[in-house]
Write a structure and sequence with these properties.
single chain, alpha/beta, Arc Repressor Mutant, subunit A, 2 domains
Length: about 260
């Protein structure tokens, strides 16, 4: 799997080294470069080679926010995420972040695991920010595509069907898999046993062929044990409901600002 590349600018070398090791033990990210002060960051000239950039504002010589403002001018291929770590928030910092397209995170002795999880969360949030409304059918298709499920397997059709049903239901159907297999079987005129086997095969065969980045964001490291049908559905439906809530709340806030 191709890891996403990270540049980190921070004056705490021990924290950087711990973060490098933490990333090495997982399969999502790789810290390929780091700098220890703002002047070093400016000397890098551009950020074209990185997927994610993490910068502490309180760098020596040149503050992180000014170093980023300089270097972004020369950057043609903008990173997916640029995170600015500051111990507090001011109107100036927020205004600069909005102007430069930075994501501001309050940092007071932030832990390695917390920082890793923040990046993970921001990656998912970034995928949703361009959506203006929640289309359940399209959301299901997009989620299965990002995970890497392949349409060539009949189990894909079963997952697409049942996730749309589950989105409209207030019950936690994934807790009653025998009911799910029966529902799908009746809809497609097949046996519950064949449904279970097809869904299991779809998960294992698809994930073994995909690059696995988004799947590992959701399911963790599954190389030794692929997610079961019930875990797969649970994670997918929770993710879809979180996406729906995020998009709906974003639209509500947008509407309120117009009043």
């Amino acid at each position: 799997m191709k890891r996403k590349t990270i540049l980190i600018a921070h004056n705490n070398l021990k924290l950087i080294q711990k973060m490098q090791e933490y990333c090495r033990q997982r399969d999502l990210y790789s810290i390929i470069d780091y700098v220890l002060d703002g002047e070093e960051l400016v000397k890098m000239h551009d950020l074209n080679d990185y997927d994610i950039v993490i910068v502490k504002d309180a760098l020596t010589n040149i503050p992180g926010i000014y170093a980023l403002e300089t270097i972004l001018f020369n950057t043609k291929k903008r990173p997916e995420l640029i995170v600015l770590l500051t111990p507090f928030t001011t109107e100036f910092i927020q205004s600069k972040c909005d102007q430069l397209g930075l994501i501001h995170v309050n940092e007071l002795e932030i832990g390695i695991e917390e920082l890793y999880n923040i990046i993970n969360h921001l990656e998912i949030k970034a995928m949703l920010d361009n959506q203006s409304f929640f289309d359940s059918q399209r959301a299901v298709i997009n989620l299965l595509k990002k995970i890497g499920l392949l349409k060539v397997y009949i189990g894909y059709t079963y997952f697409e069907y049942i996730l749309n049903v589950m989105l409209e239901s207030s019950e936690n159907l994934y807790k009653r898999m025998h009911t799910i297999y029966k529902m799908i079987g009746e809809h497609f005129n097949v046996t519950p046993a064949s449904v279970e086997k097809a869904m299991r095969t779809c998960i294992r065969s698809s994930l073994s062929k995909s690059d696995g980045f988004y799947a590992q964001m959701l399911f963790g490291n599954y190389h030794d044990s692929y997610p079961s049908n019930s875990i797969f559905l649970q994670v997918c439906i929770n993710t879809l409901k979180e996406q729906k809530s995020y998009i709906v709340n974003k639209q509500i806030q947008k509407s309120l600002r117009k009043i």
